[in-house]
């Protein structure tokens, strides 16, 4: 992905520059019911740096594949809707530079 | 008694990265780690499940450069009993023929074995030839697309998933199966096993000193395949259409319509 | 049923700077140590900004300067306030340097390798799930169903500290205790880096930027030069971000990268990595009530040992040094025959005597000031405005005081500006 001056890139393009070994089992799960019923701000959609949380109809769509394992969603979710752990077996993002 | 199994795993570049240098147009490969071919982990998983069910041993072999040690240590962390790295400069540059020959000869040294378990194909070359070729060298029956296996009365009953049905084949041992992709989800690495790997350093390394294969049959010299010409696949110009609405259902319908216009057929 | 799989003198959780430095020091002193790291390799899960202070590391690793994967020695320090495309910059250049830029993945990898060479066992790909206790005394760790026993556990699991939380040793992490960092690593020709930043070969730049660089969120942006890459990123305080964020954090960073002057400086760059990580921001206020209990020591980010002064961040050296002190504690406790809390309390003492707690205490107030929205928005606006008036001369040249008076009109009073600035200077 070439970073041209002034051209903004999409988050998926940025994530694509990383090395991944994505597990077939998710390491994070989200209780969508809580998102739909309890949460109006849905702060995770703006603060998850990997864009794993997206708005859908009245709720949330979560995909763990691009997760950078930062832990933000676990901490900012006001409704404890996020069940969070690190991936197993060294899977997930593989930083080369860090 | 149990089953003595050999699993073949390949060490492949992690091709999930698409980082292109804009000036040269080439893939940036710096620091890109290799991994165990993901489909081979499904083979390892099936082997471990069979071991749990019937007893026996699981030996992993890989023909690869020395760095593949890390990959074999990884699958030993899943619970494989023994791992052999076949590595020697003289094996380099092998096509599928030379690769399968070398693997077959190594496997012969591991006799007696009951079941050879292969991945379906690799993510870096994906010919899906190696399993069949190894079985041919060893003159044993083989079957692909296996999702599960039973072992009864000295026979392997291999369950094979096809498009619309499941077939069960009865094979005499020894035989070879290639495991269907995405079946047998690999188990996580276990502390106990990974620790043992670190403490006991059990990995075996075989060079051609051990195998004593003729140089004419291995490596680049033993590889009759010649790449005549590489034809780049035609790039289809992008139409750059964009759905402007908000509604997801509408968007899907719009997309399907566009694809139908392009000649896609729904069957 | 838990499966006991071995016994070591010390188990270290996490092969970051803190864990590996503890393991290295212990192994060198003859202890049987195992480090358990969840990543594929030591370093593969670590991410930070870009610059490390060298002295504490040289004390731990005698061959540090010769062997460590150092990118550039930081000789240029830059601090800017940015409003729109206007920057007011303070720059310090010195031929002496006490810090260097490095990739944390490689630096952490190097430290783990040193520990391994000294005799430690590094087990990667394995996640620790919990502490293993007998009668309330920590006696090892649990992973999957496996228990690895040890006389002492060093918890170096980093900022998220799930294990400590799970074990009830710290309360759940709160947004106000952490900041979120996001970073792009951008490949750029070595020559271009040196030309564009005015650097000689092997010289590095560390640059902090505040102002309208973080989408109105309290925090700041940073830029570090490595040999052939530039790291551009930002850190935002999570509690304030929760309240004020309007735009996706990645898009805020992209706004910065594609705005002047960064778009020009980074022209022809190639993005090679994008990452994110949390960083502790509450220092001593988020430390576990006790940094040690029977059989357990807490080091590095897990203990909250990080100093963010607004113009620089010190985490790696704090982490490594706390690991080193934990190792010293264990060596001493071993000579006394047991690893009960009373013997491990030496750790607290060593920390207090070291720069770690002294620095954290000295700068305790800064954390609060750094989040005040004036610092991130109002002040940069005022200062940049003053600079504009002073330097953009057409016919008349205004006096400094005139410019300041005009610039602060409606925003704050001169007095309150002076008071705030003084308190900031005092806190620093
Ligand atoms: C035309 C052509 C030319 C080539 N030229 C070269 C060359 O010059 N240099 C070069 O290095 N490579 C070359 N290759 C690649 C090389 O042939 C293959 O990497 C190798 O033979 C394995 O084939 P595959 O990856 O398609 O395996 P597949 O047949 O797709 O693999 C099936 C299964 O076989 C097993 N397996 C495959 N390879 C190994 C292995 N090495 N060790 C253990 N188990 C294994 C695994 O279980 C795997 O899942 C060439 C390939 C082709 C098609
Ligand atoms: C955006 C940002 C910018 C920063 N900039 C700087 C800077 O410029 N200079 C500086 O000095 N510091 C900086 N820091 C701080 C610095 O990165 C940290 O303070 C430092 O890395 C802490 O080291 P540590 O060993 O305590 O933790 P970490 O580096 O986080 O290491 C913890 C290790 O434990 C492993 N682990 C975690 N949980 C488990 C588990 N359950 N089982 C097994 N392993 C586990 C992790 O994979 C990781 O390898 C920055 C931080 C951030 C986020
Ligand atoms: S913040 Fe929590 S509850 Fe709200 S949408 Fe996100 S995950 Fe759901
Ligand atoms: S851990 Fe970080 S990157 Fe992963 S989903 Fe949560 S916020 Fe996003």
Q: What features would you describe in this structure?
A:
The complex is a heterotrimer of chains A (98), B (267) and C (428). By secondary structure, chain A is of the alpha+beta class. Chain A has helices at 11-15, 32-38, 44-47, 72-76, and strands at 19-21, 28-30, 53-56, 59-62, 82-84, 92-94. Chain A has a single domain, classed as Alpha-Beta Plaits, CATH 3.30.70.20. Chain A has a two-stranded antiparallel ribbon with strand order 1-6. The longest helix of chain A has 7 residues, at 32-38. The model of chain A has no long low-confidence stretch (mean pLDDT 93). Chain B has 267 residues and is α/β, with parallel strands linked by helices. Chain B has a single domain, classed as HUPs (Rossmann fold), CATH 3.40.50. In chain B, strands 9-8-7-10-6-1-4-5-11 form a 9-stranded mixed sheet, sandwiched between helices. Chain B has a two-stranded antiparallel sheet with strand order 2-3. In chain B, strand 4 (56-63), helix 2 and strand 5 (82-86) form a beta-alpha-beta unit. In chain B, helix 2 (69-78) packs across helix 5 and helix 3 (96-108) packs across helix 4. The radius of gyration of chain B is 22 Å and the shape is globular. Chain C has 17 helices and 19 strands. Helices cover 37% and strands 28% of the residues of chain C. Chain C has helices at 17-28, 55-60, 64-67, 104-117, 162-166, 190-197, 238-244, 249-257, 262-265, 316-336, 341-344, 346-353, 355-362, 366-371, 373-391, 400-408, 414-427, and strands at residues 3-13, 33-36, 51-53, 72-83, 86-93, 99-101, 121-123, 130-134, 137-143, 146-155, 178-187, 203-211, 219-225, 229-237, 270-280, 292-293, 296-298, 307-308, 313-314. Chain C is elongated, with a radius of gyration of 23 Å. In chain C, a hairpin with a 2-residue loop joins strand 8 and strand 9 (137-143). The termini of chain C are far apart. The chains are: A alpha+beta (98), B alpha/beta (267), C alpha+beta (428). Chains A and C meet through helix 1, helix 3, helix 4 and strand 6 of A and helix 4, strand 11, helix 7, helix 8 and strand 15 of C. Bound molecules: flavin-adenine dinucleotide (2 copies) and iron/sulfur cluster (2 copies). Residues 13-19, 36-39, 45-46, 48-52, 127-128, 156-158, 163, 181, 183, 233, 235, 277-279, 300-302, 306, 313-317, 319 of chain C line the site of one flavin-adenine dinucleotide.
């Amino acid at each position: 992905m070439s970073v041209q001056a002034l051209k903004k890139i999409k988050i998926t393009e940025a994530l694509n520059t990383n090395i991944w070994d994505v597990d077939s089992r998710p390491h994070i799960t989200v209780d969508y019911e809580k998102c739909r019923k309890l949460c109006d701000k849905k702060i995770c959609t703006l603060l998850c740096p990997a864009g794993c949380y997206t708005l859908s109809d009245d709720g949330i769509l979560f995909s763990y594949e691009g997760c950078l394992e930062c832990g933000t969603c676990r901490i900012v979710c006001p409704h404890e809707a996020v069940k969070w752990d690190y991936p197993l077996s060294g899977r997930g993002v593989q930083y080369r530079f860090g | 008694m149990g089953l003595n199994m050999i699993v073949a795993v390949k060490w492949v570049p992690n091709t999930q990265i698409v980082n292109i240098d804009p000036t040269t147009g080439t893939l940036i490969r710096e620091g890109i780690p290799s991994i165990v071919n993901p489909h081979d982990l499904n083979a390892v998983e099936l082997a471990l499940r069979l071991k749990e069910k019937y007893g026996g041993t699981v030996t992993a072999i890989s023909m690869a450069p020395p760095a593949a040690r890390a990959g074999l240590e990884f699958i030993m962390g899943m619970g494989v009993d023994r791992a052999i790295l076949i590595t020697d400069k003289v094996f380099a540059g092998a096509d599928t023929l030379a690769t399968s020959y070398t693997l077959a000869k190594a496997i012969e040294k591991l006799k007696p074995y009951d079941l050879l378990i292969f991945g379906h194909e690799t993510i870096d070359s994906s010919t899906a030839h190696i399993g069949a070729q190894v079985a041919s060298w060893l003159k044993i029956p083989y079957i692909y697309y296996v999702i599960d296996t039973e072992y009864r009365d000295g026979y392997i009953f291999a369950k094979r998933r096809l498009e619309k049905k499941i077939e069960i084949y009865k094979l005499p041992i020894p035989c070879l199966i290639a495991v269907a992709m995405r079946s047998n989800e690999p188990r996580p690495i276990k502390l106990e096993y990974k620790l043992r790997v670190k403490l006991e350093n059990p990995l075996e390394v075989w060079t051609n000193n051990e195998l004593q294969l003729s140089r004419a049959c291995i490596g680049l010299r033993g590889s009759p395949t010649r790449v005549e010409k590489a034809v780049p696949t035609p790039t289809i110009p992008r139409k750059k259409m964009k759905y402007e609405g908000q509604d997801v259902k509408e968007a899907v319908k719009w997309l399907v319509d566009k694809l139908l216009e392009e000649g896609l057929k729904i069957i | 049923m838990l499966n006991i799989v071995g016994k070591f003198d010390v188990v270290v959780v996490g092969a970051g700077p803190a864990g590996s430095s503890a393991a290295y020091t212990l192994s060198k002193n003859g202890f049987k140590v195992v480090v358990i790291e969840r990543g594929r390799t030591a370093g593969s899960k670590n991410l930070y900004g870009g610059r490390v202070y060298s002295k504490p590391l040289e004390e731990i690793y005698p061959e540090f300067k010769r062997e460590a994967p150092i990118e550039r020695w930081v000789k240029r320090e830059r601090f800017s306030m940015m409003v729109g495309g206007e920057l007011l910059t303070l720059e310090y250049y010195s031929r002496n340097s006490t810090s260097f830029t490095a990739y944390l993945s490689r630096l952490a990898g190097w430290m783990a390798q040193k520990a391994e060479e000294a005799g430690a066992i590094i087990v990667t790909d394995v996640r620790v799930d919990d502490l293993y206790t007998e009668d309330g005394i920590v006696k090892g760790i649990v992973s999957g169903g496996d228990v690895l026993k040890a006389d002492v556990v060093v918890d170096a699991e980093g900022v998220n500290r799930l294990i400590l939380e799970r074990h009830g040793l710290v309360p759940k992490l709160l947004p106000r205790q952490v900041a979120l960092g996001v970073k792009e690593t951008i490949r750029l020709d070595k020559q271009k880096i040196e030309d564009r930043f005015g650097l000689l070969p092997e010289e590095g730049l560390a640059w902090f930027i505040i102002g309208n660089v973080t989408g109105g969120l309290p925090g700041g942006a940073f830029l570090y030069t490595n040999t052939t890459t530039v790291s551009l990123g930002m850190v935002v305080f999570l509690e304030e971000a929760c309240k004020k964020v309007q735009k996706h954090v990645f898009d805020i960073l992209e706004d910065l990268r594609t705005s002047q002057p960064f778009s020009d400086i980074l022209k022809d760059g190639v993005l090679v990595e994008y990452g994110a990580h949390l960083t502790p921001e509450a220092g001593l206020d988020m430390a576990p009530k006790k940094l040690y209990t029977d059989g357990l020591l807490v080091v590095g980010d897990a203990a909250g040992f990080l100093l963010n002064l607004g113009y620089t961040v010190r985490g790696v050296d704090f982490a490594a040094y706390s690991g080193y002190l934990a190792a010293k504690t264990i060596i001493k406790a071993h000579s006394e025959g047991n690893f009960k809390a009373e013997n491990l309390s030496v750790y607290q003492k060593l920390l207090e005597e070291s720069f770690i707690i002294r620095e954290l205490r000295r700068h305790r107030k800064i954390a609060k000031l750094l989040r005040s929205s004036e610092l991130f928005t109002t002040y940069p606006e005022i200062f940049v405005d003053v600079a504009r008036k002073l330097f953009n001369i057409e016919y008349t040249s205004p006096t400094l005081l005139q410019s300041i008076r005009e610039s602060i009109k409606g925003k704050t009073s001169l007095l309150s500006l002076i008071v705030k600035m003084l308190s900031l200077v005092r806190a620093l």
